[in-house]
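Quarterly update, task 2.4: adenosine-5'-triphosphate-bound model.
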Amino acid sequence: MIEAKDVYFTYPTGVEALKGVSLTIKESEFIAIMGQNGAGKTTLIKHFNGLLKPTKGNVLVDGSNTRDLSVAKLARKVGFVFQNPDNQLFCETVEEEVAFALKNFGFEKSKLEGRVTWALNLLGLMEYRKTSPFMLSGGERKRVALASVLAWNPKYLVMDEPTIGQDYEQKEKLRQFIVQLNAQGKAVVVVTHDVEFVAECTPRVILMANGKIVVDDEGRRVLTNGERLSEASVLPPQVTQIFMELKDFGLETDVIDLYEARRLIRKRLSEK
Ligand SMILES: Nc1ncnc2c1ncn2[C@@H]1O[C@H](COP(=O)(O)OP(=O)(O)OP(=O)(O)O)[C@@H](O)[C@H]1O
Ligand SMILES: [Mg+2]
């Protein structure tokens, strides 16, 4: 369990990025954190692996205060994928990149090779294993960053904007394996502006604005509540907006993804 208890964080510049944030992330939960630019999302999740320590308040990971643990120690449990992969990648080949942390964590050579191959396969990166990460496209680099974290199988997986720069197919793959990892009992936290992606995943949704959590609720309830979303400068999914506008025609108002919308429209049309 990760617990943030009344966390305040002020950057050395004086910017108060978190103003009393409390939340609990249980094992095997799937959470999306959304909200306006500068709301404090990245600042908050950097507290989960101890990259930042609260100015006031506490963060506990499985009962241990992050103030008492090194980032290296926490990283084994809390895998963190940065918003910009270039902050994370530095090895000469993709393969070395994915193996790097495993070596640091002391994985045996035989196990290490197996984990690297598994992660590269999972993210469709096998053909690039001998290539420099810096020769890859932006979307591919992002996948290398993700592979390098997944390789050591952290208990909690925290991702900052994982869908940015991913094409439809990669996004769908990402969604499927998040669902799969989650089903296997891993907690997944995703920071994202991609409301359509969230709609397809229907996680618990946390909305942030001005350094605070303004909403923390089940995905469908949040995504269909235009008023609460607007507090955090988030619009409902486009398909939800259409169904909301057409509610006078007796259409459902809690539709959040295209698949559902298609099914309902077909049903309506076949009734005529
Ligand atoms: N290293 C830093 N030094 C000083 N201020 C910072 C730093 N990083 C972030 N901030 C400030 O802290 C506030 C919260 O930033 P944060 O990056 O957490 O927002 P965010 O919700 O992740 O936004 P975005 O959606 O744009 O990624 C912003 O006002 C930002 O300008
Ligand atoms: Mg951010």
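Highlight for this quarter: The chain has one domain: 2-236.
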